[in-house]
Design brief:
Elements lengths: L9 H6 L2 H5 L3 H43 L5 E7 L2 E7 L7 H13 L16 H6 L2 H7 L21
Antiparallel strand pairs: 1-2
């Protein structure tokens, strides 16, 4: 897609008042949106490639440093010339929900309170909430709050609705 010669650059957009940007012709806005989407894709690809290069360069040294500290995960610091390389390998823990339910039941059956060991988050899906009878929904309302996300506007050629 070719962009108009007078199209503002990304730097121009950063310094342009929002009201001025909002008053541009829709064709120029659509062109800018496409250019930003393309730049975003390129930046993601470049970032992925750069991060992979850093992993290739430092993964083995970081793994050795972690092993020397007696840990499988976490942060280690390496020196490379005048730079400190911070290599963080986060720990991601997943729990089998069905097995945890059984463990919680076993704890409760032994006379202990499973809440001391296991966190629980209660939630109601919107689909199930909407299927409740009106009288039941009213009972749930004090525990329910609704927030909105950010508005996303996309311009598409063709003027179809």
């Amino acid at each position: 897609m070719t962009y108009p010669v007078n199209s503002p650059s990304v730097d121009d957009l950063l310094n342009m008042p929002t009201g001025e940007l909002a008053q541009m012709p829709v064709e120029l806005l659509a062109s800018l949106q496409a250019e930003l989407a393309h730049a975003t894709t390129q930046l993601r690809s470049a970032t992925t490639r750069f991060n992979t290069a850093l992993e290739v360069r430092y993964a083995t040294r970081a793994s050795d440093a972690r092993r020397a500290c007696g840990k499988d995960t976490g942060t280690v610091r390496l020196v490379d010339g005048d730079y400190t390389v911070v290599a963080d390998l986060p720990k991601r823990v997943d729990w089998d929900q069905e097995k945890l339910e059984q463990i919680a039941a076993n704890i409760a059956n032994s006379g202990e309170d499973p809440v001391e060991f296991i966190d629980t988050k209660l939630t109601v899906s919107e689909r199930k909430y909407g299927a409740l009878p009106e009288a039941w929904r009213k009972g749930f309302e004090p525990a329910r709050s609704v927030k909105t996300g950010s508005l996303k506007v996309t311009l598409e050629a063709g003027g179809r609705v």
